[in-house]
Amino acid sequence: MVSYVPSQKDVFFGFAFRTRGLQRKITSMSQLSLRHQIPNLLTLGRIAAVPVLILFLRDGRYGSALVIFLLAGITDGLDGWIAKRFDSVTRLGAVLDPLADKMLIVSTYVMLVISGDLPFWLLLLIAFRDLGIIGGVLVLHTLHGDIQMRPSAISKINTFLQISLVVLVMVERVGLVGLGTVTDWVLWSVAATTIASAFHYMYVWLIQLSLESR
Length: 214
Prior knowledge:
Blueprint: H1 8-58, H2 62-85, H3 91-114, H4 120-144, H5 153-174, H6 180-213
Helix pairs in contact: 1-2, 1-3, 2-5, 4-6, 5-6
């Protein structure tokens, strides 16, 4: 029986082949990791933009604030598209994304109320609705464990109207165009859909409680 002893050349090429394969695996894993983190990085960028937006609104720089707000809206849509397109949805992103949206909208509404551009009662209405939703989710979670909460259609419409109202107010303050009547209609639509979405969530929760009690 003749035993085969690999030459130095065979050893070298074998090592090079394995090293190249390992490098490809590492590169593939790095690209996958980066792809998963891009949506989260965009979301963190929106969170980082909130203090800048607040400062612009405080100083009355509505044009700059409008640009920041619109860019934040674009990145919101972009990170969601990337996450779904490349199947890169993460638990961290599921928490950060709505948090970033809420921070952006609430801080903008607070500053516009302080400047007198929006009524205080509208901010209170939105805040009470949001707190009620959080409280309801906590109660259901305590009573029945893990629950599935998805935004309702009326809630999505409400969010769209809230964003539209901010854009309209800023456009008016910049002086690009006068939209007084349109802005008023959108404002009252925000109030109406805020109330409607609150009652809708209450209705859904009552159904869930009745089903769980059977």
